[in-house]
């Protein structure tokens, strides 16, 4: 039985055990491929010839077929596209990350977070601050910098050790909150106080991973949207829908409410959903059918988290 077949029906205990065993075997194969890949990278960085075909095969596995990443790693040109991707900005001095000829992951990690990246971690993912929001590409940008800062001294284990330390060192304290319920909505041009209408500048001090892909304009008033909503639902329902749309913009769910769009086909339901998705952003939304919610007990976790 394949993993897909298991997901498609209610799992029994035996089925779950079988799926778990397959998942563990797959994870072990992935880890073996990653270990071999980084070992080959280490050997190549020391100036030795490696089997490019084997390196390419492993790279496609490690980077899930992303040909750009594959090519960059095979050719040794992986420098990324973050704020510190310009090599001229960095004066590499790899010796300063060694104490008594032993590599210190703390020194490298501290240098990166003090001088190059604004980051925080949830213990697993490293989030990087960029254009007003923390993005989940911190691991990748961190690797970019280790390559540039260590140069020919770079080794995969140095990356692993320094990244592990950085993730542990940047977990927020209990007094700090990620995506806080502070009355602010992160939009492309600032932090909007939805109570007062005041637009504040972005700041890395606010640990937010959600940003709406729209610019706040207090003078905007598009009558087309209101006319459309009035044409597809009773007029007294429009304000309720607008309230629910506003509810989707804040970071809390304390009201524990949902809304269902009903009606015959071609009556505007999909257009309303597309309008809402455009407002909050595809990256901030997910789509799960009612059938999946009822029959696939793992679907919610895999789709929402």
TrEMBL record:
Any Pfam family hit: D5_N
Keywords assigned: Hydrolase
Superkingdom of the organism of origin: Bacteria
InterPro entries per record: ORF904-like_C, P-loop_NTPase, Phage/plasmid_primase_P4_C
Bacteriophage/plasmid primase P4 C-terminal domain: residues covered: 109-234
Annotated PANTHER family: ATP BINDING PROTEIN-RELATED (PTHR35372), SF3 HELICASE DOMAIN-CONTAINING PROTEIN (PTHR35372:SF2)
Listed name of the protein: Bacteriophage/plasmid primase P4 C-terminal domain-containing protein
Organism: Alicyclobacillus dauci
């Amino acid at each position: 039985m394949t993993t897909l077949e298991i997901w498609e029906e209610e799992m029994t205990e035996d089925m779950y055990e079988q799926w778990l065993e397959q998942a563990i075997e797959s994870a072990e194969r992935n880890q073996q491929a990653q270990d071999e890949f980084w070992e080959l990278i280490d050997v190549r960085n020391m100036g030795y010839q490696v089997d490019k075909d084997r390196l390419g095969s492993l790279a496609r596995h490690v980077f899930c077929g992303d040909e750009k990443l594959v090519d960059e790693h095979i050719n040794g040109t992986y420098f990324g596209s973050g704020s510190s991707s310009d090599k001229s900005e960095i004066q590499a001095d790899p010796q300063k990350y060694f104490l008594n000829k032993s590599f210190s992951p703390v020194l490298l990690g501290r240098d990166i977070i003090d001088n190059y990246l604004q980051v925080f971690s949830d213990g697993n993912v490293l989030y990087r601050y960029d254009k007003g929001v923390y993005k989940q590409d911190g691991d990748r940008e961190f690797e970019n910098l280790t390559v540039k800062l260590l140069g020919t001294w770079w080794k995969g284990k140095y990356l692993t050790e320094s990244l592990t330390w950085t993730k542990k060192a940047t977990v927020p304290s209990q007094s700090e909150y990620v995506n806080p319920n502070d009355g602010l909505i992160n939009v492309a041009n600032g932090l909007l106080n939805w109570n007062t209408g005041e637009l504040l500048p972005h700041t890395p001090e606010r640990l937010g991973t959600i940003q709406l892909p729209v610019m706040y304009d207090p003078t905007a008033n598009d009558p087309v949207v209101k006319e459309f909503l009035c044409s597809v639902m009773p007029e007294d329902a429009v304000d309720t829908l607008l309230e629910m749309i506003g509810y989707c913009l804040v970071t809390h769910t304390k009201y524990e409410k949902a809304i269902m769009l009903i009606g015959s086909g071609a009556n505007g339901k999909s257009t309303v959903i597309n309008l809402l998705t455009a407002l909050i952003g595809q990256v901030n939304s997910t789509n799960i059918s009612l059938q999946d919610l009822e029959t696939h007990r793992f679907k919610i976790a895999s789709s929402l988290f």
